[in-house]
Amino acid sequence: MVSHRAWVSAFGDESPYEKWQKTEGVPSLHGFYVEDLTTVPMAPWPRKGGKGSFINLEGSEHHIDGYVHEIPPGKASEVEKHMFDELIFVMKGRGATTVWLEGGKKQTFEWQVGSEFTIPMNSWHQHFNGQGDKPVLHFGATTAPLVINYYHDTDFIFNCGYMFRSRYQSEEDFFSGKGKLHPGRVWETNLINDVYNFKLHEWKERGAGGVNVMFEFSNSTLGGHISEFPVGTYKKGHVHGPGAQIILLSGHGYSLLWPREGGEMKKVPWKKNSMFVPPNNYFHQHFNAGLEPARYLVFSARSFRHGILNFRVYRNMGPDSDIREGGMQVEYEDESPEIRKIFEAELAKEGLACKMTPINYRKK
After folding, report:
1. Are 308 and 221 within 8 A, CB to CB?
2. I need a labelling partner for 183 at 20 to 30 A (CA). Which of 13, 130, 276, 350 fits?
3. CB 355 within 8 A of CB 230
C-alpha cells in the first residue's frame, strides 16, 4: 500500500488555490480569528492594485475566503473580472465602483464606510478612491477557493469571455440600493448603503432579545446577514457548516466555540473590526460583555436561492430550530451551566449585570 506521505512527496500537499494564492504576493493570515481587520499586515498587490492581504481562517476550510484591500488616496484598483462570486464591505473611506460586461454599458455607483455590495459573476469592475488624502480599505469575501480548486486553471477563471446575463444585464436600478423584504427577514438587494444602521427585525427564536436581517445578492451563491443583541445578554448556541465570515460592527465581548463531537472549548474575544470563522460542525455562541449593543456582519455561501452549504437544513429546518428535533440550535435549558457562569464572571469584570432570565436546566 502506498503511504499518504509518499503521495504528498509525489504530488505535494498544497491545493490549487493555495498554490495560486502564493503567486499573488500578499500575506495570508490563518488561525481562528483576527483581532482587527483594519490593522492586518499588507503588501503590494499587483493584480488588484494598492495593497492587500488574504484572510484564510481555519473555519473557512476552502469554501470561501476573505481578503483586505487598500486603495491609496485618489487612486483606483486595477480592472479585473473573475469566475467566482464576490461580496465587498467598505471599512474605511468612500468612493465608487464601475461595473460592465464586455462591449456593454458601464455602470458606476458610489459607496461609503459601511456599504456592502456584490460584484456580478465575471463582470469587469474597477474601484475608485474618492478621497485625495486618505486610503480606502475594504473587506471582500469570495468563492475563489471552491472555483480554483475545481477548475485548477487560473487562465480560464480570470480570462473567460462568457457573460452571465441571467445574473446581470446592466439594469438601470441594479445598484440603486433599493431592495425587497421577503418573509423570514430576507432582504434582496445588490447594494446596502450602511450596514451599521440598516433596519433589523425581531429574531426571538435565537434568544437574547436579538434582531436580524438576512441578505440575498444578485443571484449569487454568497449571502449573509446582520445580527444585533443587547448589553448583558447572549445568544443561543448553534452549529452549521464551514465558511461563515463574522465581522464585528460594534460591541465588545466574546464567542465560545467547541466541536460537536466533544472537545476543548475555545474562547474568541472580539471588538469592532474583529473577525472569526467557526469551523465546520463547531457549536458557537456569542456573548455581549460590553457597554453597547453588539452588531455583527456575516458572509457565507448560504444564499437561500443558490446556496451551496447546509441548504437542506436551512430550507427545511432553519438555523433556529432545536437540535433535538434535527435543527441547528441548542436551547438555553440544554446548554452547559458552565456557560452562564463564564458569562456572569465576564460581566462582573466590567461592573455589568446579567440581563438573562434564570435557566431551568433539563436533565441530560
Report:
1. yes
2. 276
3. yes
